[in-house]
From TrEMBL, chain A:
Keywords: Endoplasmic reticulum, Membrane, Repeat, TPR repeat. It holds the Pfam family TPR_EMC2. Belongs to the EMC2 family. This is ER membrane protein complex subunit 2. Component of the ER membrane protein complex (EMC). Residues 86-189 form the EMC2 TPR-like domain. Part of the endoplasmic reticulum membrane protein complex (EMC) that enables the energy-independent insertion into endoplasmic reticulum membranes of newly synthesized membrane proteins. GO terms for cellular component: EMC complex. The keyword Magnesium does not apply. It is found in: Endoplasmic reticulum membrane. Residues 264-283 are annotated as: Disordered. It is a peripheral membrane protein. It comes from Polypedilum vanderplanki (Sleeping chironomid midge).
Automatic annotation (TrEMBL), chain B:
CDD domains: MPN_UPF0172. It comes from the Eukaryota. This is MPN domain-containing protein. One of its GO terms (cellular component) is EMC complex. Residues 4-138 form the MPN domain. InterPro entries: EMC8/9, MPN. Belongs to the EMC8/EMC9 family. Pfam families: UPF0172 (PF03665).
C-alpha cells in the first residue's frame, strides 16, 4: 500500500504521526523499508528523529534487527545522550532482558534525577512483567514528584481499572480533567467509571459528567448512551417524583439524539451493504434498549 | 460438560480482533446454540479494545447483541477475550470476566474462550484458543474443536498475512462512527466466499 509514496510524502506522513503521537508501528516500518531506507541522506534534519521513530516502531513489531540498525546510527551520533540510553533500555526490554534494562534506567536516573522518561519506563517494565500492584506503587511515587504529568495520571487510571479499584481510577481521571477541563472524552470516561462503581450517588454523579460531555460534544455517542442509562436508573429508582420525572425527560431526549445519530448512518450503510438485509436493525436495537429499562411511563404512575 | 464446536466464521473474527489491536486487550461475545451435550458457536461479535473494565457500554452492547441474536434464533452463549499482557492466558487473567458472569446469570451457563496471544502467528497450526466452561459454580477447563480445522487455519493464516483484520469492526468502532457495522455483515459475506473456496 505504501510502495507508491514518494519519499517526501513518506516523510510528511511520518511527521504527522510523530506530531499526533500515533501508534502505527506496522505502517511506519513498512513506509521506512519501502520508501526511505535507501534515501536516508535525503531526510536532512529529520534523519535522526525519523530513525528514532522507526526504532520504536521496529521494537513494537518485533523487528529487532531493524531496531538495532537504527540505534547503531543514533549511538554513533550521540554517544553520551541520555535519550539514546533510554532507547537502549527499550531494546533490552523488547528482548525481555528486564534486569539489564532496569540497570540502564537506574544509571540514567542517577545521572539526571529529573529524567521523567526513564522513571516511566520502569513502570512500563513492571507492567510488562505483570506486576501491576508494583507498577502502581512506582507510578504513585513518580506522580508525587511529577504531579502535572497527565499521561502518567491516565496510565495510573488504567492500572487501577485493571486492579478493579474504580474509586482510585476515578480520582486519577479527575486529575486528567484538571488539565483538560473542556475534554468531552475525559468527562465521559469519568462518567463510565462512576457508573461502574454503581449506587444511587455515583449514578447521579455519572449523570452530571455525561451531561457535561454531551454539552461539550453532542455527537459523543457513548456519553449519550451513558446519559440514557443513568437517567433510566434514576427514573426507576426510589428517588423523589420530581427527580424521576426530570430524569425520564432527559432519558427520552438522550434516546432521541441517539436515534438521530444511529439512523443517519444506517441509510449510508444500506448503500454500501453487500447484502440485502433491511435497515430496521437500528430501530430494533433501540427498542431492545428501551424494553430492557422497562416502560418508564408505567413505573412513574 | 458439553462439547464446544467453533465455526470458522466465529474463529476468524476472534483472531482478527486480537490481531487488529496487538497491543491492547480485546473482548467480544460468542453467539450460537446449545443442546444438552453440545454447544455450537456460530458467530463472534467483537466488542471493545479500550477500557474493557467499565460497564455502561458493555450493558448497551449486551442488550443490543442479545436482541440481534434473538432475531436470528441465536443466543449469547460465550465470551472471548485476549489479555493486554502477552503471556496472560489463564482464566484468572481474563479482562472483564464479569461480562461472562452476566451471561451465566442470564443463560445458566457460558463458555469463556481465551485467545493465547503467543500462539497467534501468520501460519497457524493449531487454534491458539483455551476454553473454560461454567460448571458447579466455577470455571472449569474444557475442550473445544474448530469446524473444518485445517482449512480454517489455512484461511486465517492467509488472511492475516494480507492484513484482512483491518476490515473487522468492533462495538468501539461503531460508537466512534456509526457507519462502522459491528455485526460485520460485509466481512461475513466475504468470509463465506473465501471459506467456500477452501
Amino acid at each position: 500500500m505504501y510502495e507508491d509514496l514518494s519519499w517526501s510524502e513518506a516523510k510528511d506522513l511520518l511527521r504527522k504521526w510523530r506530531d499526533d503521537n500515533e501508534r502505527k508501528s506496522d505502517e511506519v516500518v513498512q513506509i521506512f523499508e519501502y520508501c526511505l531506507a535507501d534515501k536516508i541522506k535525503k531526510l536532512g534534519t529529520e534523519r535522526l528523529i525519523i530513525l528514532e521513530q522507526v526504532f520504536v516502531a521496529a521494537l513494537d513489531c518485533s523487528r529487532i534487527k531493524l531496531a538495532e540498525d537504527c540505534i547503531r546510527v543514533l549511538i554513533s551520533e550521540f554517544p553520551e545522550s541520555l535519550r539514546v540510553m533510554k532507547l537502549k533500555a527499550m531494546l533490552l526490554e523488547a528482548l525481555e532482558r528486564y534486569d539489564d534494562a532496569l540497570d540502564v534506567l537506574e544509571s540514567i536516573i542517577k545521572k539526571d534525577e529529573t529524567n521523567a522518561a526513564a522513571r516511566k519506563r520502569k513502570v512500563a517494565i513492571l507492567k510488562a512483567k505483570g506486576q501491576i500492584s508494583d507498577a502502581i506503587k512506582e507510578l504513585c511515587d513518580y506522580l508525587k514528584k511529577f504531579m502535572s504529568d497527565q499521561e502518567a495520571w491516565h496510565e495510573l487510571c488504567n492500572l487501577y481499572l485493571i486492579e478493579g479499584d474504580f474509586t482510585k481510577a476515578s480520582f486519577c481521571m479527575e486529575e486528567v480533567l484538571l488539565h483538560n477541563p473542556y475534554s468531552h472524552l475525559v468527562h465521559q470516561r469519568i462518567g463510565d467509571i462512576r457508573y461502574t462503581i454503581g449506587g444511587q450517588e455515583n449514578i447521579e454523579i455519572a449523570k452530571s459528567y455525561y451531561a457535561q460531555a454531551v454539552k461539550l460534544n453532542g455527537n459523543n455517542l457513548r456519553a449519550l448512551y451513558g446519559l440514557y442509562l443513568c437517567c433510566s436508573h434514576i427514573a426507576t429508582s426510589k428517588a423523589q417524583v420530581t427527580k424521576r420525572k426530570e430524569a425520564q425527560k432527559l432519558a427520552t431526549w438522550a434516546m432521541s439524539k441517539i436515534f438521530d445519530i444511529t439512523n443517519k448512518s444506517s441509510k449510508q450503510q444500506q448503500k454500501s451493504s453487500k447484502t440485502s438485509t433491511g435497515n430496521n436493525k437500528n430501530s430494533t436495537d433501540i427498542e431492545a434498549l428501551e424494553a430492557a429499562f422497562g416502560n418508564l411511563d408505567a413505573k412513574l404512575n | 460438560m458439553s462439547e464446544l464446536v467453533i465455526s470458522p466464521k466465529a474463529y476468524i473474527k476472534m483472531i482478527f480482533h486480537a490481531a487488529k489491536y496487538p497491543h491492547l486487550a480485546v473482548n467480544g461475545l460468542l453467539l450460537g446454540s446449545k443442546t444438552s451435550n453440545k454447544s455450537e458457536i456460530t458467530d463472534a461479535v467483537p466488542l471493545f479494545h479500550q477500557c474493557l473494565y467499565v460497564t455502561p457500554m458493555s450493558e448497551v452492547a449486551l442488550i443490543q447483541v442479545e436482541a440481534r441474536a434473538a432475531s436470528e434464533n441465536l443466543q449469547i452463549i460465550g465470551y472471548y477475550a485476549a489479555a493486554e499482557n502477552f503471556y496472560d492466558n489463564t482464566i484468572d487473567k481474563v479482562p472483564a470476566i464479569k461480562i461472562a458472569e452476566k451471561i451465566v446469570e442470564n443463560n445458566g451457563s457460558a463458555s469463556v474462550v481465551v485467545i493465547d496471544n503467543k500462539s497467534i502467528c501468520m501460519d497457524m497450526k493449531h487454534s491458539g484458543l483455551k476454553v473454560w466452561q461454567w460448571n458447579d459454580g466455577k470455571w472449569t477447563k474444557a475442550k473445544h474443536s474448530l469446524s473444518d480445522s485445517r482449512h480454517t487455519l489455512d484461511a486465517v493464516s492467509l488472511l492475516l498475512q494480507r492484513g484482512a483484520m483491518k476490515e473487522l469492526y468492533d462495538f468501539d468502532n461503531y460508537l466512534d462512527n456509526t457507519e462502522h457495522d459491528w455485526s460485520n455483515e460485509n466481512l461475513n459475506f466475504d468470509l463465506k466466499k473465501i471459506l467456500a473456496m477452501h
